[in-house]
Write a structure and sequence with these properties.
The protein is an alpha/beta fold and 339 residues long. It folds into two domains: 22-56 and 176-327, Rossmann fold (3-Layer(aba) Sandwich), CATH 3.40.50; 58-158, 3-Layer(aba) Sandwich (Rossmann fold). Helix content is 35%, strand content 15%. It contains ten helices and ten strands. Strands 1-2-10-7-8-9 form a six-stranded mixed sheet. Helix 7 (199-211) links the parallel strand 7 (190-194) and strand 8 (215-221). Helix 2 packs across helix 6 and helix 6 (167-183) packs across helix 7. The longest helix has 17 residues, at 167-183. It is globular. The N and C termini lie far apart (64 Å). It binds 4'-deoxy-4'-aminopyridoxal-5'-phosphate (PMP). Residues 57, 59, 87, 89, 194-200, 237-239, 280, 282, 308-309 line the site of 4'-deoxy-4'-aminopyridoxal-5'-phosphate. One of its GO terms (biological process) is cysteine biosynthetic process from serine.
Length: 339
């Protein structure tokens, strides 16, 4: 006799392991111990590797939460268009989360965003509009102004606005923070991350501080408003601003470390060579800040540093010797540092 046909299929299905959609694979990124790069400091330094998200960055978490909230309350309707000023990663997250839902995506990027990142957005099927990054925020050609104009012009357009949307920080309070607390068994003492919208630091930091006496440290490029500057004079992508976004809560960071581009880029290259972590520039900045803090700490401290994205989007920039030289940065020696 055997099983009825559908019962047999259920048993077979039960043994297979798969996600029913790519968005189910967002989050739950691992912690990995930083070895050589952190060999000179006493604490345990753990990197949270966000490039292992399916869209390649921490921004997948934010994108899916913003879209689902907008669908729930009717801001985003079937057939709608998602318009967002994005340096690339939020666009990739939004595009993959919009996957299969039939939304059109239009992303507005400042021209400092690398060609590789623009190509990734187009590969996901998005339209990309490029704007000058040298004009002020209120200039009609700024990427903020252009995105506002597009939202007004396109029927059914919705702008997630990662700089004001509370679902950004909320996504980190709901996922990134709890994952770090769980995976360190509550032993994390310091959390370090870069400041772009400020959402990662705000949401994750707020959650961790609720759980225990965790110190929260922001990494910001020298010249950005977070570091007391006017928003000019740095090349690192994804962090730094020329204004304070609403998603940033100045009450959450206990300390902000200003990191110059030369240290950021040297560290970014070192992470790839010495740790096998091919990450982007904001990860280098966060690691510089984390080590600066860790140098003051002891062996019982556990420093978690979040690495927001991978390095493949920067092969023609940070990882390119000519680009480094043209922009006045030393090309670091190729020697591997002994552990
Ligand atoms: N690094 C990269 C590469 C990013 O794209 C972003 C997001 N802009 C950040 C860091 C900063 O994260 P947040 O916006 O949460 O401050």
């Amino acid at each position: 006799m055997g099983f009825p046909a559908d019962a047999k299929r259920r048993v077979t299905m039960h043994r297979m392991r798969f996600a029913s959609s790519i968005v189910e694979l967002i989050g739950n990124t691992p912690l990995v111990r930083v070895q050589r790069v952190a060999a000179h400091v006493a604490p345990t330094v753990l990197a949270k590797v966000e490039y292992l998200n399916p869209g390649g960055s921490v921004k997948d978490r934010v994108a899916i939460r913003m879209i689902e909230a907008a669908e729930r309350d009717g801001r985003l309707r079937p057939g709608g268009t998602i318009v967002e000023p994005t340096s690339g990663n939020t666009g990739a997250g939004l595009a993959l989360a919009a996957h299969g839902k039939g939304y059109r995506c239009v992303f507005v990027c400042p021209d400092r965003v690398s060609q590789d990142k623009r190509d990734v957005l187009r590969a996901y099927g998005a339209e990309v509009v490029i704007c000058p990054s040298t004009v002020p925020r209120d200039h009609p050609d700024s990427y903020h102004s252009v995105s506002d104009r597009l939202v007004a012009e396109i029927d059914g357009a919705w702008k997630p606005d990662q700089y004001t949307n509370p679902d950004g920080p909320a996504s980190h309070a709901a996922t990134t923070g709890p994952e770090i607390w769980r995976d360190t068994d509550g032993r994390v003492t310091h959390f370090v991350t870069g400041l772009g919208t400020g959402g990662t630091l705000n949401g994750t930091g707020r959650f961790l501080k609720r759980m225990g006496p965790v110190r929260v440290i922001g990494a910001a490029p020298e010249g950005s408003v977070y570091a007391g500057g006017n928003g000019q004079g740095y090349l690192v992508e994804g962090i730094g601003q020329d204004f304070f976004p609403l998603t940033h809560d100045p009450a959450v960071p206990d300390e902000i470390v200003a990191v110059p581009d030369d240290e950021t880029f040297a560290m970014t290259r070192r992470l790839a060579r010495d740790e096998g972590l091919l990450v982007g520039g904001s990860s280098g900045a966060a690691m510089v800040a984390a080590l600066r803090v860790a140098e003051r700490l002891g062996p019982s401290d556990v420093v978690v540093v979040l690495l927001p994205d991978g390095g493949r989007g920067y092969l023609t920039k940070i990882f390119n010797d000519d680009w480094m030289t043209v922009h006045g940065f030393d090309v670091p020696a190729h020697a591997v540092t002994a552990a």
